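To the structural biology subgroup,

Please find below the input and predicted structure for TetR family transcriptional regulator, which we are adding to the shared reference set this quarter. The sequence is reproduced verbatim from the submission form. If anyone notices a discrepancy with their own records, reply to this email rather than editing the shared folder directly, so we keep one authoritative version.
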Amino acid sequence: MTVTNRRARSPRGSGEDLRDALVTATAKLLETQDLNTLSVRTVTSATGVSPTALYLHFADLPELLRAVKARFFGELRDSLLAADGDVRSLAKAYLRYAREHEGRYAVMFHAHRRTDAPAAPAAELVELGWAAFEPLIAAVGAVLPDASDDELRETSLELWLALHGRAQLSVAMPWFELPDEDRYVDRLVRHLLGQPA
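Predicted structure (tokenized):
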């Protein structure tokens, strides 16, 4: 006889608690489990509810994953806002988040492989992605106060691309000898913004 841990029935009106529990359980699973092996059953089993309960809050697994990504983008923004505010501190905070939360970072930027055209991203994710990026744009703007909006956006994107590339490469090729993070950031800021180390 198999005994399963069932979640106690929630009181009426506590649907948001269950929704949050599903997002939390999924986030925890993704710290150690590959995204491609995640299923509705593994999430509901970890949460102690039936698959039906999940479908009361999310249309499908991709919608649940969007909610998880939204949480992680919020965490990244909080990490950047907690940094000193200068470009170097923000860049180092970005790389630290990616390194310390490897599973979360991978989920944030995961793209489903499809043969047909991918669906447009959820508006909420686009908004949260830009919100997480805003502290970096503001820091670049403080260094380049006379830059046009286009120049500011392009320079900020170049900085982010370089940070994201290093973060991804350190996971994909951990055996490859990358430059020290601090030295990498110093050189990057100097090349892009002309700031001395």
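Summary notes: The chain has nine helices and no strands. Residues 1-14, 113-118 have pLDDT under 50 and may be disordered.

Regards,
Lab coordination
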